Structures are given as structure tokens and as C-alpha cells.
Amino acid sequence: MHQSQPKSVVTRLKRIEGQVRGVAGMVEGGRYCMDILTQVQAIKAALGKVEDELLKNHAAHCVEEAIRDGDAESQRQKFSELVDLFGKYRS
């Protein structure tokens, strides 16, 4: 994680951690499946927000730094990382 990563990412991840523990408790307690699935969807949405924030930070710091430094190899590497990431998770 880049040092300038906002504390909000850690805060969000800790909140998600609590949500996951809550869902585990729901499963153990035999709660209604739709209630559990609703919570799983909320966790997925929260993780999506973390991903968005991390991507914005990567673009704002790592990619911007490579562009500012004028290092063509670093620029290609940062771009390639993003392409690879999106390629892995394309549906």
C-alpha cells in the first residue's frame, strides 16, 4: 500500500471485517437465507468502494509520479499493471 493511502481505506476494511463476522454469526445461527444474502451483497458493495478508492489512489500517486518523472519504462509498467488487473476480473 502506498504510504499516502487514506486512513478511510483502513476504516472501511475494518467495518467490512465486522460485517463478515456478523454474517458468519448469522449463518451459525441459522438466520433466513435472504437476510444473509442481503448482508453479503452489502459486503460486496463495500469492497467495491474500497477497490475504487485504491484505484483512484494508484492513479493519483503511482501513475502520476511515473508521468511526472518522465520515466517511460515506469509509465508502461504502471499502465500494464492496470490492464492486467482489469483483464483478470473481466466477466
* Rg for CA atoms: 18 Å
Would you tell me the structural class of the helices and strands? mainly alpha
| DSSP strand content | under 5%
Mean pLDDT level? 88
Find the count of extended strands (DSSP E, 2+ residues): 0
Q: What is the succession of H and E elements?
A: HHH
Kindly, what is the distance between the CA atoms of the first and last residues, rounded to a whole number of angstroms? 26 Å
> What share of the residues lie within helices?
over 70%
Main sheet makeup: none
- Oligomer state equals single chain
Q: Number of helical segments? A: 3
Structural notes for this entry:
With 91 residues, the protein is mostly helical. The chain contains 3 helices and no strands. It has helices spanning 7-28, 33-69, 72-88. The mean pLDDT is 88.
Architecture blueprint of SSEs:
Layout: H1 7-28, H2 33-69, H3 72-88
Helix pairs in contact: 1-2, 2-3
Keywords:
91 residues; 3 helices
Concise account of the structure shown:
This protein is an all-alpha fold. It contains 3 helices and no strands. It is elongated and about 55 Å long.
